[in-house]
């Protein structure tokens, strides 16, 4: 079947994406919707209204995850869950996360309208947070659902304005006992639709991609302490310049990552200086490292090599180095039974598809620890994501939704 008549859900998903992107819209045409921010709260409540008008029963949990439920004949038979995350990076795009939530909502309302009550319960989730953009921790939403995090023991982490995660959660109306316990043991299957955020599907002209697995990811924050001093009166040889040291460290990341081979990526995305004044030698430099690899031992070796190099540079320059690792997600494989089913459905619909590994992290990485998980990708124009230029053709979005509907039908109605 060619893509043209796969456009059945194109207008539904595009109006969903356009509507949701209004919450946190920035001037460049992108979206900034950080965990527990006012835009995030409004978006979750808008979503709740959309779910309810589609006939779903909605529930928030204590962490702020939102679920829309289409109860089956046998609720004790566990839940088949689809969805993704509602938060975005700063100045992000309209599709990352939002597509998977909208696809799930459209799929459940289609199934309810055309096939009535399922045998097994279907739910769509809008996970509270996946990106790690506001606080130095990621997967706060799905992490609470699988018991990796717990709202009764909130990590002491702060955002750029010094607001703590626990305070932000309470201010948004969530927290221990506020809604329903987040940890769940009744989820049997999780299917996440997501944009590829890479260029393979578009360049090789595939309509959808079936995800084999997701790379491992480790994120750190490094603090380099030197000595703030006068830029004019401090000879070069007597300086303990935190930024000069950090620059040497950051430059070594590129060299080391390249040496580890092409499927290795390492990124320094955030850098803060103090006192950050033109005529003062920086006394403090704080920067993040995001490192990824499909192979766990290679990722460990890369991180070890990077930290060892940093320590040598700090010693050489008489600088203090402190290292905080705040994310360590292992590489995971998706459920082969589900990926096989997806392949059958894609070929039965005549869709051009291929399997591929995800270089981006996803909630499915957490959910696969407690249930069978699978992902379906759609192409990203020019491979761009985490940017207002993020875009996917509506027909591809619609084709993936059509596949999701058939898969959920197989899982919940047969
Ligand atoms: O950064 C990532 O891997 C994803 O977009 N959270
Ligand atoms: Mn995402
Ligand atoms: Mn149908
Ligand atoms: Mn993202």
In round numbers, the mean pLDDT is 96
Helix and strand element order: HHEEEHEHHEHEEEHEEEEHEEHEHEH
| Quantity of strands, as a count | 16
At the fourth level of CATH, the homologous superfamily of the largest domain is Zn peptidases
CATH fold description of the largest domain: Aminopeptidase
How many structural domains in the coordinates?
Answer: 2
Given as residue ranges, the uncertain stretches (5+ residues, pLDDT < 50) are none
Small molecules (ligands, ions, cofactors) in the structure: (2S)-amino(hydroxy)ethanoic acid, manganese (II) ion
GO molecular function, one term: hydrolase activity, acting on carbon-nitrogen (but not peptide) bonds, in linear amidines
Cofactor: Zn(2+)
Protein name: Zn-dependent hydrolase
Binding site for Zn(2+) 1: 85, 96, 194
What features would you describe in this structure?
Residues 216-315 form the Peptidase M20 dimerisation domain. Zn(2+) 2 binds at residues 96, 131, 386. This is Zn-dependent hydrolase. It holds the Pfam family M20_dimer. It is a single chain. The protein has helices spanning 10-20, 38-53, 98-115, 140-145, 165-171, 200-203, 242-259, 296-316, 336-348, 363-367, 394-412; strands at 57-60, 66-70, 79-85, 121-127, 187-195, 208-214, 216-225, 229-230, 265-267, 271-274, 280-281, 284-293, 320-329, 332-333, 353-358, 372-378. It has two domains: 3-214 and 331-413, Zn peptidases (Aminopeptidase, 3-Layer(aba) Sandwich); 216-329, Alpha-Beta Plaits (2-Layer Sandwich). It contains eleven helices and 16 strands. The strands form three sheets. Strands 1, 2, 3, 4, 5, 6, 14, 15 and 16 form a nine-stranded mixed β-sheet that branches. Strands 7, 9, 10, 12 and 13 form a five-stranded antiparallel β-sheet that branches. A two-stranded antiparallel ribbon has the order 8-11. It starts with 9 loop residues before the first helix and ends with a helix. The chain is globular. Helices cover 33% and strands 23% of the residues. The chain is α+β, with helices and mostly antiparallel strands and 414 residues long. The protein binds (2S)-amino(hydroxy)ethanoic acid (HGY) and manganese (II) ion (3 copies).
């Amino acid at each position: 079947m060619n893509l043209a008549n796969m456009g059945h859900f194109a207008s539904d998903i595009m109006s969903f994406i356009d509507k949701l992107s209004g919450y946190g819209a920035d001037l460049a045409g992108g979206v900034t919707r950080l965990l527990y921010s006012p835009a995030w709260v409004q978006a979750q409540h808008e979503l709740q209204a959309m779910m309810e008008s589609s006939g779903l029963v909605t529930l928030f949990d204590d962490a702020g995850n939102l679920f829309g439920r289409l109860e089956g004949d046998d609720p004790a038979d566990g839940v088949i869950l689809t969805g993704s995350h509602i938060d975005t990076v700063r100045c992000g795009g309209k599709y990352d996360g939002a597509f998977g939530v909208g696809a799930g909502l459209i799929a459940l309302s289609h199934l309810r309208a055309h096939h009535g009550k399922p045998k097994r319960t279907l739910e769509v989730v809008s996970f509270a947070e996946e990106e790690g953009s506001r606080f130095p921790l990621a997967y706060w939403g799905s992490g609470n659902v699988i018991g990796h995090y717990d709202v009764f023991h909130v990590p002491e982490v702060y955002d750029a304005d010094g607001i703590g995660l626990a305070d932000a959660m309470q201010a948004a109306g969530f927290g221990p006992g506020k809604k329903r316990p987040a940890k769940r043991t009744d989820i049997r299957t999780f299917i996440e639709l997501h944009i590829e955020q890479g260029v393979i599907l578009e360049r090789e002209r595939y309509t959808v991609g079936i995800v084999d697995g997701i790379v491992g990811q480790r994120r750190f924050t490094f603090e380099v302490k030197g000595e703030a001093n006068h830029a004019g009166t401090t000879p070069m040889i007597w300086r303990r310049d935190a930024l000069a040291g950090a620059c040497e460290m950051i430059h070594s990341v590129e060299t080391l990552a390249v040496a580890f081979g092409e499927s290795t990526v390492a990124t320094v995305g955030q850098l803060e200086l103090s006192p950050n004044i033109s005529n003062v030698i920086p006394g403090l430099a704080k920067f993040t490292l995001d490192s990824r690899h499909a192979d766990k031992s290679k990722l460990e070796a890369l991180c070890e090599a990077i930290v060892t190099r940093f320590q040598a540079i700090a010693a050489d320059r008489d600088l203090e180095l402190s290292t905080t690792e705040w994310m360590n997600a292992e590489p995971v494989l998706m459920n082969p039974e589900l990926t096989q089913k997806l392949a059958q459905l894609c070929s039965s619909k005549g869709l051009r598809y291929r399997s591929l590994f995800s270089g981006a992290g996803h909630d499915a990485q957490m959910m696969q620890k407690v249930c069978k998980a699978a992902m379906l990708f759609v192409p990203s124009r020019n491979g761009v994501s985490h940017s207002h230029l993020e875009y996917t053709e509506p027909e591809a979005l619609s084709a993936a939704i059509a596949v999701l509907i058939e898969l959920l039908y197989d899982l919940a109605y047969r």
